[in-house]
Amino acid sequence: MTDKPKPHSPVVIVGGGQAGLSTAWCLKQKGIDSIVFERHEKFHSWRHNRWDSFCLVTPNWQCRLPDFHYDRDYGGTDPDGFMLKDQITAYLDAFADRTQPDLREGVEVTRVVPQDSGGFVVDTSIGQWTCDQVVIATGGYDTPIEPAYAQRLSPGIFQMHSVEYRNVGQFPEGGVLIVGTGQSGVQLMEDFLRAGRDVHLAVGPAPRSPRRYRGRDATDWLQEAGHYAITIARHPDPVKAVTQTNHYMSGRDGGKEIDLRRFHVEHGVQLYGSLADMDGPKARFLPDLAKNLDDADRSYLGIRAQIDAYIAREGIDAPAEPPFEKVWAPEEERTELDLAEAGITSVLWAIGFRPDYGWIKADVFEARGKPVFDRGVTAHRGLHFIGLGWLHTWGSGRFLGIEEDSRHLAGQIAAQLAMPARRVAG
Predict the structure, then answer these.
(1) Matching Gene3D superfamilies, A to Z (predicted)?
(2) Does one domain contain both 332 and 394?
(3) Which domain holds residue 386?
């Protein structure tokens, strides 16, 4: 009695987000069949892992899925606005309806194993599949990061990671300590302020960006100046580009920049350096608040200088801006805080995620577990990644760069699939 043949697809795509479905569409345009496995439902993280008031940080015009740009193809009417969560999912659902991928929702991929004869075996919750090529489009947000010392915090103090946060109503009355000042941390800070809560913020090394500058959104200037076209191969500091936290700003209320010094002066947000330890009701901080604020401002001023240089080089008539001034600087570094005495009843962790690729049984990872590739193509024939930051440009892993990345990857897959046929023919 022979084993029943396993179902086969030329390409298996793991992950039903915008990166996976964009790749499926670009493959379909080349006449290549693919199947997309998504362990939840399509665009799950946009639907379920974002808070109620979430909106884009980048303008809507940057939403450029392949053949489905926000204004040109989708018919969006506010290219300079910032879509809210439900509007984002409506845009993504419309793309899926337009492109009709072979999508299997509720299917978890548990293992990808290369075969000696070529191709892969893909273990899923609905059985084994084989394929010639695999695209990993799961992103880098698998495991929420919480430090070990969080377990030593007094049990009476409520804790939550940002992935679970939906609104302030989930938290007990009282003040909150938000740990992390990336894009999530500073926007959640504003949620609590609007609810009338006392906010304490552990300020990390994240950089910040201007929002509107010299008459336009800073991202408009940077796009026009070619900044977003710089590739990782041509970047003057590729290590910094790949490891640096995203610049923080906000799309709320039509878009605004976030100056934490102003939030301290105007809204009473209490600022501390990077969180270093917790024990009982005590939190300890590094004495790096002044440095972190200065570094964020340095990044902010660097972007302004880039825009100024472009305006001068091109002879553009743009309104002048007043020079930046610090509205506040810490007189001393507070390195210890008794949360109970300060009226803090909750801690909200906003310090990011780490990927988990343990289920991929191929030698394509460096010592820290990050995949090694060239524009998503690994050294192991047929194994590819997409939807990660700086896959090729700043826009990789964001709406802005997914069209270019998915078209390139589809071309690489098509070339690899054609190579055996060419060898036989020759």
Answers:
(1) FAD/NAD(P)-binding domain
(2) no
(3) 8-142+355-425
Q: Which of 282, 314, 349 is the last residue of a domain?
A: 349
- In one-letter notation, the amino acid at residue 376 is G
- Are 78 and 217 in contact by the 8 Å Cβ rule? The answer is no
Are residue 50 and residue 116 in the same domain, yes or no?
A: yes
Residue 2 lies in a domain: no
Residue type at position 270: Q
In a domain, 3, yes or no: no
- Give yes or no: residues 315 and 334 share one domain: yes
**Whole-number Å distance between alpha carbons of 217 and 56:** 14
Integer Cα distance of 385 and 375 in angstroms: 8
Q: Are residues 183 and 321 in the same domain?
A: yes
* C-alpha to C-alpha distances, 369 to 124, 361, 366, 383, 402, nearest whole angstrom: 22, 12, 5, 16, 23
Pick the last residue of a domain from 300, 321, 349. Answer: 349
CATH number of the domain that residue 34 is part of: 3.50.50.60
Mapping DSSP to helix (H, G, I), strand (E, B) and coil, where does residue 11 land? strand
Q: How many CA atoms lie within 13 A of 265 on its CB side?
A: 10
Cβ neighbours around 181 below 10 Å, total? 28
Per the CB < 8 A criterion, the answer to whether 391 and 358 are in contact is no
Per-residue model confidence as pLDDT tens for the chain (426 residues): 456 788 999 999 999 999 999 999 999 999 999 999 999 999 999 999 999 999 999 999 999 999 999 999 999 999 999 999 999 999 999 999 999 999 999 999 999 999 998 999 999 999 999 999 999 999 988 899 999 999 999 999 999 999 999 999 999 999 999 999 999 999 999 999 999 999 999 999 999 999 999 999 999 999 999 999 999 999 999 988 888 888 999 999 999 999 999 999 999 999 999 999 999 999 999 999 999 999 999 999 999 999 999 999 999 999 999 999 999 999 999 999 999 999 999 999 999 998 999 999 999 999 889 999 999 999 999 999 999 999 999 999 899 999 999 999 999 999 999 986 443 333
Q: What's the total number of domains in the chain?
A: 2
CB 204 within 8 A of CB 351: yes
Report yes or no: 214 and 318 within 8 Å, Cβ to Cβ. Answer: yes
Whole-structure pTM value? 0.95
The reply to whether 210 and 314 lie within a common domain is yes
Range list of β-strands (E), 91-154: 103-105, 109-114, 120-124, 127-136, 143-144
The CA distance from 398 to 61, in Å, is: 12
Same domain, 114 and 28: yes
Residue 243 lies in a domain: yes
Asked if residue 406 belongs to a domain, the reply is yes
